[in-house]
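Internal ticket #5521
Category: modeling
Description: The requester needs a full-assembly model to guide mutagenesis choices. All entity lines are attached below as received. Residue total reported by intake: 1328.
Assigned to: D.W.
Attached entities:
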Amino acid sequence: MPATSVAEELAKKQREISVSEFFERNKQVLGYDSPTKALLTAVKEAVDNSLDAAADADILPDILVEVRKVDKDEFLVAVEDNGPGIVKKEVANVFGRLLYGSRFFARAQSRGQQGLGISGAVMYGQVTTGKATKIISKVEEDDVAYQVELIIDTKKNMPTKVREDRVIWERAHGTRVEVPLKGRYIGGRQSIPEYLEATAIVNPHARITYKPPEGDPIVFERATEELPPKTKEIPPHPHGIELGTLMQMMKETKSYKLSSFLEEEFVRVSARVAKEICEAAGLDPDTKPKSLGLEQAKALHDAMQNAKLMAPPTDCLSPIGERLIKKGLKNVLGNLRPEFYAPPVTRDPSVYSGNPFQVEVGIVFGGDLPADQPVEVLRFANRVPLIYQAGGCALTQAVAHVDWRRYGLEQRGGEGLPFGPAIVLVHVCSTKVPYTSEAKEAVATVDEIMTELDLALKECGRRLKTHLTKKAHRAKTREKFEIVQLILPRIAEKSAKIVKKKVPVLDATITKIMGVVWVDETIAYDKKQKRHSVTINVHNFTDAGKKLNLHLLLPRGVAAKDLDPKPSEVREDGKVTWELKRIDSVDKASVTFVLEGLDEAEYDESDLYVSGINPVLVIGAEPLPGDWELNYAEFETEETPPPAEAEDEGEIDYDETEEALDDE
Amino acid sequence: MPATSVAEELAKKQREISVSEFFERNKQVLGYDSPTKALLTAVKEAVDNSLDAAADADILPDILVEVRKVDKDEFLVAVEDNGPGIVKKEVANVFGRLLYGSRFFARAQSRGQQGLGISGAVMYGQVTTGKATKIISKVEEDDVAYQVELIIDTKKNMPTKVREDRVIWERAHGTRVEVPLKGRYIGGRQSIPEYLEATAIVNPHARITYKPPEGDPIVFERATEELPPKTKEIPPHPHGIELGTLMQMMKETKSYKLSSFLEEEFVRVSARVAKEICEAAGLDPDTKPKSLGLEQAKALHDAMQNAKLMAPPTDCLSPIGERLIKKGLKNVLGNLRPEFYAPPVTRDPSVYSGNPFQVEVGIVFGGDLPADQPVEVLRFANRVPLIYQAGGCALTQAVAHVDWRRYGLEQRGGEGLPFGPAIVLVHVCSTKVPYTSEAKEAVATVDEIMTELDLALKECGRRLKTHLTKKAHRAKTREKFEIVQLILPRIAEKSAKIVKKKVPVLDATITKIMGVVWVDETIAYDKKQKRHSVTINVHNFTDAGKKLNLHLLLPRGVAAKDLDPKPSEVREDGKVTWELKRIDSVDKASVTFVLEGLDEAEYDESDLYVSGINPVLVIGAEPLPGDWELNYAEFETEETPPPAEAEDEGEIDYDETEEALDDE
């Protein structure tokens, strides 16, 4: 066959592929690559929709998930919610067309953003069972619900209604979808109940009822009646917007002036900033945006990227928050008791391609957690737990990229998932999460997101390390205490015997050798009243009186009660400062307070800092970090020039001491 | 806002999303999540197209890849080929519409199957630079080439021609595409030259010239003038076809009878098999396929799944093959010298969802390879190297799922990527590779594929293990030899001295203690002539004459020359058998042959087996496996009932011997 006729032959084969045909033949990219996964994916898509719908209408979600076994490998997945319902004329479109939806063009944090989720489930169902999906939906002003059974005409990507009806339905409003599909039911890891539980934890305002194929229903009760703050839709942020996208926006804008285009169609661009950008680009602010050529658009784009702008507002995002991060971690622990929750890190919002996003990290460490396995990474995106594709996910990769050896975890070669007794929770929320595929199983490795993840993980790592260092310090000092109290009296006794004198009183000597200020705490918990009673003791084991300031950082949103003594300052961000009275040598000072309404595991250690004293002398509290400015009058501080060899002096050479004893 | 008006509000926002809009906002799923990756993805898509086009037209591909730096973060990717060209009226469609192509509906192994690749690159280019893509294409019968610059109208998913022309072009036929895009250029791992080199290795019939942004062009010369066997398009295989898909096919078929529908629209269904399937389903073979209801379709589907059918024909697939697998492995070794290439495994074709697929695995082990890092996994799909998303890929996950400790590699907990001095190459080819996303970076974990991968990896692992065991055996026996030859004479000497007799001749005694037939080989290589000269020696270190058959398995497609002595049998599949003459005690037999045209690393150890002798006695060759039937007259075999304690007898207790010496 000559080459030419090949070209002609090939041309004959060229044709358009409908989006339904594409996904029908590539169902794995929607998350339907195995019967086990298919079942979970279908549930996930329907629950995502239900949560989003409730959020849109400010309704506390009440969701019923039912998985019924129909045949040896056929199941019926039914998900029902109390959302606002879908108006009749849109029901068939929402469920029966791929790439159809309401959230795709909105810059707001939501679970479904693609217009592919639930219609993908409908298509997978019909491909594997030959059956239609049934939907019932009711909006409040209608007396009856609308019910339709439909399949997707994949050639046209349009719904075909098999049957429709008006039916009586007990709900005031809401939607129920029933998808028949080929599946395999599993328990344990990566299972439907596990996914629902994780979902319930980070959406504590939702009640989720699960009816498994066998056994009793499980109810994940709502933990709060409070809706999470509603996220706002916002225009794009100028940072990271692509040149081509900018040009497209200028072509489509209704603004007649460049400056007003910038001001109106971007967030964080004031009139003043808009002018500055135009100036920097060498463009007249009154130019018509439509009139800009490629070179001018490029100059504008550069100026936008280089402009100093505020980070995007936080109210377009809905992070999980410190409390729920700890709760999420606690949940997977089961009966295991950890040693320590590193205070979770929530970064400030950042931007990629004009999309705001925010990163959160929490770590739980030690105790009964297995030390000989890679750490578990719990992944969340927009409050949705990610179950599959861990290895292909930016969240896992960011964890594997940190050198955890610096933070006290074992890691061969300083790369890869660390081993050790720890679980790491990572959450990314964004007005547009860049998933690696339509299955929304993994986040793509976008540079800006990787940077933020890295910073958040390292910060949380440092918090872990601080704890471990503190712990090691204390352990070392305690050991020293014990040895000094054991050995010094023996030396004294023997020496006294030799020189035939009275055994001297050693308290002051021991204190001098120790030379530390020792901070420790006890936390009592009253389960019934959900009360933590915290006592912090500051022991002065130095040979002189000491004066210092004690600083406490409470977890976000937690307020302390009954503080005694009264602190010098209590700030809204949870920073509390006590200007302690002078503590005499061998004496101690105490501070007590009460926390209410937390679960036991939510507060297991106080975040303590000191100032006004050489921090090298203090065991059990860190030096006050520079960013915690003291905004009140200078404290009267102690002028104790610390002994240069403070650390060394403290070190006892046990061997020498032992020798001394033997050499009597 | 009451719930109702929310439903109305939401309804207003509902709209259709064009496929271009979808991918414009989700460019990461096409592989454009970072500027670095974007550059490679664009090259990859264009090269895939060029290779496919050449294959369609039976042309030896000659591909030019050029990456030019335009601006600090802007590049021009130009790829030019000598393919058949594209007819004028299709050029704009092929490059300017997403989901448009010629291979989507074909069940044949090709690189591009989605109709998304090159148009995705065009779209990414225009979004990031605001510029159009230029295409030149010429078909053989035209005197001039067609040149067009186009962008994609994303709202309509249609090309907009910015400019078009007829131009003079030196090529007889071919296509050149120039995509301007935002990118970042890197060298080393995951770089364009690395990808091109890997591509050249598994496509040895292609010449690829690469002009990097800086420095001299690199030419990957063609290693053969022979085109790989052309793969055939085939209808689906009945196994794994989904019920819904089957029903759709029956609705659309032109066949009037069920039996002819089955026979014509499926591979491996003969008239007889079609009848059997109808019978098993309780259906009349003359029924009209269109008339079948759901229950009947289900019965038919069940019968099809349970029918015993031949595996799909191999001519629809194009595996890499043993030689190229070794070459691919050798390439990444650079200057490292490995110890051993485990003979690669190519599984027979299998089926998932009606799509034939085939799995290949190769392992290179030991030598200079680093032992303290996770093994490297080289991934290929349809002869395309996979560069990104290793962690999210079925190929990597299958490797991590094998318990490699059984095959001599270190692996903590028997899971995860093993550590050790090894590189694993894995290839999946299929008429439809189930990629996890449109970026075609990773293969989805489809059950049937996972099973085949697992079998292939374990088989290759066993081959590795066989080598390691053989090596350990030899080492152990060699040690025994040395010790026996050292110690026995000393015992003899001392004993003779004590009893005042002459020191006895020990040869027979040593032989008796060893009691083995020792097989070893030397391989000499002549670089100029590309000649391997192989000598195999069979030493009889037993106390009796031995007769045995030596069997050699040559690599696929390799023939031996100058075999001496003449073998009893040479089969086409590379199985060679020598019926050796009796070897006297302490004597040896030798076999020599020559292999021509292989690279040195392609043959480093002979695959040897023995029969007609108790295999326990033989070191250096394995017992003949059961599947290697001896299809010639019974050999005259030795009746040497091996001593039951053959193995034990061989073991020397060194301590006892030493004691004996000391106790003189």
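Resolution: model delivered.
Comment from assignee: Chain A touches chain B through 98 residues (CB under 8 Å).
Ticket closed.
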